[in-house]
Design a protein that fits this description.
By secondary structure, the chain is mainly alpha-helical. It is built from six helices and no strands. The protein has helices at about 5-10, 10-20, 25-55, 60-75, 85-95, 110-135. The longest helix has 28 residues, at about 25-55.
């Protein structure tokens, strides 16, 4: 895998969010699939963090390559006036952030889509940091 391939992986939360959106009509299946996809995504981000550490890719460089689309999505999800771009950010947030809808009153907040995107971004960030920090390259 090349360093540039991290950009392709950065699109996975958006892709997983589309799957969650497609299955949104089926309550129990929807929740199970969302949790499964989120766990899979966190495992992938943990593995990618380990890969970056093993290949001497500096922490911030690897993180920026992997989480660049996530950072953009969080901003887009906060700007409803952007139309299609806003929806793109919202789909990114669907990957894990829709679980926040089960917290009473939270989904009525004006920036709920941005909060969902930030939640997804934070979870994947934690996965990457744990993977990166768990790998020590011995000289």
């Amino acid at each position: 895998m090349k360093q540039q391939d991290l950009f392709i992986f950065s699109l996975l939360p958006t892709l997983f969010g589309i799957f969650v959106l497609v299955l949104a009509g089926m309550t129990s299946a929807w929740l199970a699939v969302q949790i499964l996809l989120l766990v899979l995504l966190l495992c992938l981000w943990w593995w990618l963090g380990r890969w970056c550490a093993q290949h001497d890719l500096a922490f911030w460089r690897g993180f920026a390559l992997l989480q660049g689309a996530g950072m953009v999505s969080v901003v887009l999800a906060a700007l409803p006036s952007l139309g299609s771009f806003y929806l793109l950010g919202q789909v990114y947030g669907n990957c894990g952030g829709v679980l926040l809808a089960f917290i009473p009153g939270l989904s009525s907040l004006p920036f709920f889509a941005a909060l969902c995107a930030l939640f997804t971004f934070c979870l994947t960030s934690v996965g990457y940091v744990l993977g990166f920090s768990s790998t020590r390259k011995h000289v």
